Amino acid sequence: MEILVIAGIDIDAICGGIGKCGKCKVIVKDRHSVNQITAQEKNILSEDEISRGLRLSCFVQLNQDVTIIIPNFSLKKEQRILCEGIYKKTKFQPCIEIKEVSIPKPLLGDKENLLDSIKRELMEENILIDYLALKKISNEIHYGRKYDILKFKDEIIGVCNKEENIFGIALDLGTTTVVAYLIDMKKGDVIDIEAILNPQIKYGEDVISRITYSIKKGANTVNESIIGGINQSIDSLCKRNGIKNDSIYEVVVVGNTVMHHILLGLNLKNLSSSPFTPTISKSIDIKSRDLGIKINPSGNVHVLPIVSGFIGADTVGVLLATEIYKDNSISLAIDVGTNGELVLGNKNKMLSCSCAAGPALEGGNIKFGMRASSGAIESVFIEEETFKVFYKTINNKKPRGICGSGIIDIVSEMLRVGILDPSGNIKELKHERIRKNLSNNQKEYVIEWKENTTIGKDLVITAQDIREIQLAKGAIMTGINILIKKLKIEYIEIENLYLAGAFGNYIDIENAIRIGLIPNISMDRIKSVGNAAGEGAKMSLISRKKRMEETIISKKIKYIELASEEKFNEEFVKSLKFPEF
Amino acid sequence: MVSKEEILEGLAKAVIDGDEVKSEELAKKSIELGIDPYEALMEGCNKGMAKVSDLYECKEMFVPEILLSADAMYAAIDVLKPHLKIDASAKKPAKVIIGVAQGDIHDIGKNLVKMMLEVAGFMLIDIGKDVPVDTFVNKVEEEDADLVAISSLMTTSMMYMEPVIKKLKEKNHKAKVIVGGAPITSDFSKKIGAAGYGKDAVEAVKVAKSLTGA
Q1: CA gap B8, B41 in Å, rounded
Q2: Which end of chain A, N or C, is less packed with Cβ atoms under 10 Å?
Q3: Of B51, B83, B115, which residue is a domain's last?
Q4: Residues of chain B contacting residue A269, judged by C-beta atoms under 8 Å apart
Q5: Which residues in chain A have Cβ-Cβ distances shorter than 8 Å to B58?
Q6: A interface residues, B as partner, C-beta within 8 Å
Q7: Which tens digit of pLDDT belongs to each residue from A481-518?
Q8: Which of B83, B117, B152 delimits the end of a domain?
Q9: Domain ranges, residue B173
Q10: DSSP state for residue B93 in the 8-state scheme
């Protein structure tokens, strides 16, 4: 382990390398070049892992040079790769086409007008032209020079000098954050990224409060605020990179159905109650000037299609990025948030559903829960013999709360060391860390004593917190189980499990399995794909083929309304328990 | 020979443990032994259920266990019921209309509250899920209910609670409205003018009791 640290590899080790937490697994290629496997490792590693050459790096002593493989799951969470791989492989062939034309000086007697000679040069006689683009051509073109004509679908939308760069923006419109990627539309490179808080946070943190506000104040207020936020991001990207807003010709947007409707200024009323019908599902192209988005006014805003009231363009983006719809084998994509979205299937059939997980997995409704920011406990390990808690906080500050990944770790560890039984009840154990809160008679487990926190209180996890987690993970697992049954498959047939969103990046996968948040399938099939929705938007921006596939995805995917499933209540109650290992 | 106390304790325990087979068997035995079925119900089943509700309140029991307890209790009640003498002089139980608000089809919470209220002696009329505002109002008038319990898991359905309260007030109906469900808070219930709020099934029973003087 020391050698790995010296080599700059951020190996995961919450226990600080004392052979307790089992996080620092590595594969040793040549078993004879290192010390023999120790008894303590044999305790922690499974037989299967041992036979595959896995060791705990904190026990490995090298006798000579050796090749060591570091599995993805042993790296510290920040280091895990996002799904940029597929983006890089995507063929660069954007919908905004650039065609070079040279415009010869007209001679006396030539009857052809300027626009017609451009059309002839483009070899497209029937092409239309955007009015503002026409004005620009008329005022800025000099005869005898070469220009780039920009085309979108059947229309000329711009003209620029050959050496001028043009750009596009991929936009992930999240309920909480808005992320904008600035892309070079001649090469496809990502030049810069800007992330801001969604300015609508002031109307409430979740989509429903946005809906409520919009119904009260009219769709325009919330629409103006999101357009303002988008323009602010575009302005900062332009300023930082010394480019003009006018040189951006397309924005591609993903977002959940509510954000989608807010952006388009559509009425949210029907999204607010059963059967949650959206106004439009198909993808849509709008002139930027019609939406008030400050890029080139002739530029296009492309919004990805949505599937249903609960499965939005963000999920379509996740699918574009993970390419589930192309595979023969079965994949499951999970995007965990207040609403968890699931897609299960392959190229023949895809089912989707939305699970009302609530905010517990993000630290909400948890006594000392907090968002993942400085001082939040983010990973936890409990020593079996002493129930002593080892943890790591964000920025290594004194703890002031617990964020989602920390809560999952705590619950999982409490199960592993036997503080919690599978029904979710904190056991009656004689230990100073396990006690009863006399004000409400609830049991709680002390994670850290008050003198070591910044909140002046013992940091505890309460019996109620555990129940909240059970409800949240139960909701997700119910969704998974119902989709699995609908598709008539078994867990074992899931070849790929994609965890999308920040959540998927930061949680400990083994712990997520132990608490039953995700199915117990082999770790190497589980991939954290980061902001896959944003990746999908980028792909749609630079690839005509991907853009066509959006439509195929949204048509192929079937939405299952979980709560109206006959077996829903039964499945949900079953899923509340923790799995027994 | 088993004593009466043993049977009653056994019944309570079977309910707490959610042991359907045991509770049915003990209920039958209590009849065989000539134990007053009302006593078996109150000192056996209900005592067990009271303990269950305490355990639920301090979070030592959760939804799956409670449902098992409910099954065990109903199994015993099914045996005892035919033997119960109807007491004509007894106070009529308060009538409760219960349902899930319009737009929402999640009903586990509602079912739990319904069961707990039934155990507490209320007369329940369950009008199901995704219940339109007017259905609530009409049913209340039709049944001349004392209490209306509306649940919602989804924030979007919360907004259909207030109109029920308003319409009942307009009609000057005596029925009081209590609300609950994951997104509901005490503040929200006050804002919409509900008579009461229960953060869980146990609290719902307490609120219902205090509102009806039961």
Answers
A1: 9
A2: C
A3: B83
A4: none
A5: 440-443, 463
A6: 206, 208-209, 211-212, 271-274, 356, 358, 423-426, 440-443, 462-464, 466-467, 470-471, 561, 563-564, 569, 572-574, 576-577
A7: 999 999 999 999 999 999 988 777 788 999 999 999 99
A8: B83
A9: 95-212
A10: P
